[in-house]
Amino acid sequence: MMATPETPSRYTVISADTHAGADLLEYKPYLPQAFHDDFDAWAKTYASPFDDLIIATAKRNWDHELRISEMDADGVAAELLLPNTVPPFFPTSPNITISLPENRAEFEHRWAGVQAHNRWQVDFCSLAPARRRGLIQVFPNDVDAALDEIRWGNEQGCFGGVLLPPVSPGDPNVAPLFHTRYEPIWQLCSELDLTIVQHGGPGSPAMPMDQPASNAVLITEMALWAQRTLGHLILAGVFERHPTLRFAPTEQGTLWVQQQLMTLDAMVPTMKSEAGNRTYGMFGGSSVDGLTLTPSQYAQRNCYLASEFR
């Protein structure tokens, strides 16, 4: 069939969820000198819980030539990097989902590790600037630190967005993402035209990992905790206040989106003060009253999905 504008003869494939990172010891030069001794001690005892980081093919995470050759073989024009290797001071836990730092001392070390990964990305992206973009990884624990890192990352010219992890329900140390304390992050990302990306995996609540069903429950629920963020941002009015802000859930599937939006579309109108609903009206509030679009309309305008194919 002859190609027409409606039937393109070829497609440009960009992978929105490739994983990459430095080999463990290669992160040391990217750390501040003050952390070098702590890093040496930590690296000597760290054991990776991830099989794909200790087998022969692990080098595809950091081997530029290998990655480019595999991209060419797969017909992939460009890639967006998400972290995959172990950054400095990454915790070891039977629960392999990544929890947020629980105190300031842990935050200082893990934040230095995340910053080291961000700086490694700058060098790695420079090897293929037309085909590779990174994500500015931040923690929600310290908003001011996150803002400084986002501004720094934007100046590098190699980042396509901000990787913000979900917050576990009931986390005693970090506020949920519908909290108003994060407004400066949404504002800055909107101003800089940086997409907020959230990957499935983090955000699981603490759970016993010594039970026969522990790992099965962990993996089957893993994406669930990140999927909560879409509704949180809609109900908090984030997309109402920032109509150009983009949010992209990755590796969380897609079937859940329709069900969540159907629920929100049905409930939100009844929660508004103008509805006069004696039951649901008490659960609305000013953020819900301020919504001028339906939840589905916000999702259509502000959200993009990155799905995996197996």
From TrEMBL:
GO terms, molecular function: carboxy-lyase activity; hydrolase activity
A GO biological-process term: secondary metabolic process
UniProt keyword terms in alphabetical order: Hydrolase, Lyase
Keyword Hydrolase assigned: yes
Domain Amidohydrolase-related: 105-258
Cross-referenced Pfam families: Amidohydro_2
Lineage top rank: taxon: Bacteria
InterPro entries, per the entry: ACMSD, Amidohydro-rel, Metal_Hydrolase
Entry keyword Nucleotide-binding: no
Transmembrane segments: none
GO CC terms: cytoplasm
Name assigned to this protein: Amidohydrolase
